[in-house]
Amino acid sequence: MRATMHNSKMSVKQLYNEREASEALGIPLPLLHVILDEHIFNDGTPRPENVEFTSSDLLMIAYWVEKTPVENVIAMPMRS
Prior knowledge:
Helices cover about 40% and strands about 0% of the residues. The protein has helices spanning about 20-25, 30-40, 55-65. The model has no long low-confidence stretch (mean pLDDT about 80).
């Protein structure tokens, strides 16, 4: 899965809510929650109900989306 900002002509906002962030990244909201829980809210504190993101935050999350394995894809072994 490749996360990209889907509409490059879209104006840059100051803050994005979770729904807007998932739409901008082209990922489902539950996947955004998984990424947040794995990379940000992983110290035992629960994820806040309302999280807002800057455009810089979205760039970092897009990187993590690239590194998150897709559950329904079988990884092929490395060829030697």
